[in-house]
Amino acid sequence: MSNQDFAKSLIDQIPNEAPNAETLEAFAEIENGGGHKSSGSAKQLFAELMED
Questions:
Q1: What digits encode the pLDDT tens for the residues 7-33?
Q2: Which residues 6+ apart lie within 8 Å of 33 measured at CB?
Q3: What does the pLDDT average to over 24-44?
Q4: By residue range, what is the domain housing residue 28?
Q5: Distance (Å, whole) CA 23 – CA 50
Q6: Looking at the chain, which terminus has fewer C-beta neighbours within 10 angstroms, N or C?
Q7: Element (H, E) at 24
C-alpha cells in the first residue's frame, strides 16, 4: 500500500458530520463579535471560564 493510499484510507475513516444547532449558534456568535476573549495564560482563561 502506498503512502497516498494509506493516507486516503485514514481520511475515509473520518465521519462526515454536520454541526448540530448548538454548534452553529456558537459559530454565529463568534462571527458576530460575541464569545469569550482572553489575552492571558491558559490557566487564567480556564479560571475565567469556571467563573461564568
A1: 999 999 998 899 999 999 999 999 999
A2: none
A3: 91
A4: 16-51
A5: 20
A6: C
A7: helix 21-31
